[in-house]
Amino acid sequence: MSELLQEFIAEARDFLQEIGEKLMALEDDPQSAELLGELFRCVHTLKGNSGLFDLPEMSKVLHAAEDLMDAVRSHQIQYSQELADTLLDAMDFVGQLLDELETSGKLDPSHGGRSVELVRCLRSLIPTAGEALEELTADNSPRDKKETSGTPVSLSIGEIPEGARLEAFRTGTKGVPLFIVSYRPEEECFFKGEDPFYLSRMTPGLIWGTVLGRGGWPSLKEFDCYRCALDFHFLCTAPRSELEDHFRYVLDQVSLRALSPLELVIPQGLVGGIVDSEAFVSRALELLENDDFPNLKILAEKLTLGLSEVSWAASVLRWLIAMVEASPQYKEEMRRLLLCLKAGIQPDWKKEELVCTEETWANPSSAQKLHEKLRELSPDEAKRVLAILCAQREVLSLMEVDRGFQGRMEACAATISACLWRLGEGAPAVQGLLSSCLEGLTVTPLLHWLDDLLGASREAVDVQLADNGQPQERPQEVSRMDSGPNEEDEALKLGRPIEERRATKALKVDPAKVDQLMNLVGEMVVAKNSLPYLASRAENEFGIRELAHQIKTQYAVINRIVEEMQDAVMKLRMIPLSLILQRFPRMVRDLSRKLGKKVELVLEGGETEVDKNIVDAIAEPLVHLIRNSLDHGIEMPDERAAAGKSACGRIVVKCKQESDGVVIEVTDDGRGIDPFLIKRRAYERGLISGETMERMSDQDAINLIFAPGFSTAQDVSDISGRGVGMDVVRSAVERIGGYVKVTSEKGKGTGVILRLPFSMAVTKVMMVRSDSQVFGVPMEQVLETVRIPISNINSFKRNRSAVLRGRIVPLLALNELLGIPSEPVASESGELAALIIRSREEKVGLLVDDFDGVQEVILKPLPGDLARISCYAGTAILGDGSVLLVINPKEMIQWQ
Amino acid sequence: MSQRRILVVDDASTVRLYYRTILEREGYAVSEAVNGLEGLEKALSASPPFDLYIVDVNMPKLDGYGFLRELRQQALPQVPALMISTEEGQGDRVEALRAGANYYLVKPVSPEELAAYCRLLLGNGGVR
Description:
B: 5-stranded parallel beta sheet, 5 strands, 18% strand
């Protein structure tokens, strides 16, 4: 499986978790825009990620979920319980797919049906039903979404009547911004309460407008008059911000194009029929030269009188007059316009302006050059170059003069330069243009240069862009990435000098590697223990005190380092308990709904960190405890009300750190455990005798729930089941060296306390001697060690006992338990050594020959079939290299 | 020519890994940021500055638009930015270009496409 797919699966799981949590949080605060936004983002990103792989079932469901969340986010629909359920179902499905993907590396095609079903459920919640149908019908074919919105093919300026253009020109030359607005309403706009016609007519600064059909009209039979098939175009003079505000609800359907007044100057009309144009032009040029604008105007007006209104010359003159009126700044343009009078050709304003602003930019052949260079490239590459250059043109035309102006200009210039470099074409002009732009706070120099550069090529590209909304080279080989790990992995392995290889802060490490490190450190702990042994040999056997001393000093150093190392590795393995706690809210929510109970779950201390193995080991028991509380503890709402409690039950899971370990308490305020009921049930099952039942204290009765096969629930339910009960919880907890305690008060509630060690990597064992052999006993089982004078031991038949602090403690000989045919040996002072062991809430004394101190060892379970012998906890290797057999007295005593 | 440096700003680690794999194969040095805010920090503290930014739109803390807007106001050598998003609308493209992006692509982007655009946007010498 490729690294990318693994990353995807891991990240997707995180997202699913987050989505679940956010949904939970939303139940309390359904209006929170922030939560809705985050939820949308999670689903959205997840969908985006899944698109990198060929996972149609998953992507489809996520896509529907995303649309649903988008509708909720934009308040088209209200958040509801049903919605959350559907979404959670969908996410569970995605989770299943992820599991499958992880185990088998691919998806079984059989999920199609379920995914269609989920998509239908999700879509049915979204108000507009139209899309859902589309999605369903397009189910098995690649999705080709029809572009309903988008920008219409832009209107050419020449199509605007001259009168409107003249008016706009006059306004524009006064410094008011000019825009051509193209508005393509959505087809369904009428059903959204939009009124495109009214909206268009109310456009600020509207000078002229037109309505055009989109073309491709369907036959009359299919024609739907309730769908908008019109485009609106208008010429207006208003600041961009005002226009954007006006169209704020449909901004995505509107395109604005800024115009310079000169762009409007397009004379139109019938050429010919003008009398003495030569004389007029030379006279007019003379007046222009002398800056005699008033007379120029009079001259032009006079000539106009004798001309047909629809003639080319009349049109030119009208523009000339408008220019004269506007300002003398267009002197150069007027000259140019006059020269066009007779020829009947359009004046080229762009080049004109370039020439008059700065000679050096003008590079008449640049367009030609670009064209040639482009032809050398592959069609795809050429298309990309043009697309990028056109994007820069768009960037420039969208540019506003604000704080980011300089930065955006620089970036734009850098992009253009980079692009031209690729063509093998240096662009020294760009730098100069950039400076003029920055000095003049205007985009014009660069924009016009770019326009010029793109020249003829642009039109072709424009059409292409208008077709697609953007240059599209739809990726075909994207899904390739999930199946082809070799190529990129190899590139990574080649070990290029790549800096900042991993930028992420958190390091994800395979737990197996940490385990290995842990084991090695463990071995080291044991290995260092051989040093004191060596030291004593050096001193006692070889008589070299100096060496012994040095070994001891060195041992102290190594000991310190190893301890720190051990500590560091332990910390690596520590993970917060919240990792298991976080699944509970969802579980409690689902179960309580199923049971018809109302329950509030409170989680505390999730940040408490515990060794990973411990977390793994208690996850299941904790689930079991919470289920128990839900199923048996918390009463039905009416029952609670009758008992004077609030209808909503409460389950608290509290984690806290104590000196030697972690304590997890699961408490509920339910009906509690009835000791009498327990006793009777235990009696019925034959677990206790009638006599014991009479004598038994309430706490002892409650402890009966730990007895194997005990369950007090009246009905078998699919939630807690029957048969598997607290005994499983207890054995799971004890296996990792912890213990369980239950407290309960009838009618008030139940509390289960789990005490767990931080870590189970290194075990402390008590070394004991029996029949001159050494055995280990796990320290957590040892309550205390005592030496009992033989005289204080009472024997009754073969059973021995002693009185310890006023209580009778039964005594068993380890030799006897192990089947060693010898009696425990008393010390010189006539005392027997006894380990006091806790066994099922009872104290038992284990008689041994002698104690031999406490050692830290790495406990390894017995291999193979031997592991099933529960009397032995495992083996460990001691400092001198010998093997220590660690026994499990608790189990041994039970076997007895 | 020294190695060109690219900053990838995207909240999805899968996407970052995808880009990184492609870009490193092309011989670029890739840095990552998980949101706009971190991206900005990295861009500001990078020395020498990055040669290209690849930016996602929808991110927590600071989105792609915000990142570009802030970035373009900073006094550092300004270089091209490529915005890559799942949004397909025309409005988003315009918004991106206005915020300070120099090109806009829609996910999913094929390895070839990404590499080709990066080559073009990085050029050979640039104006730096």
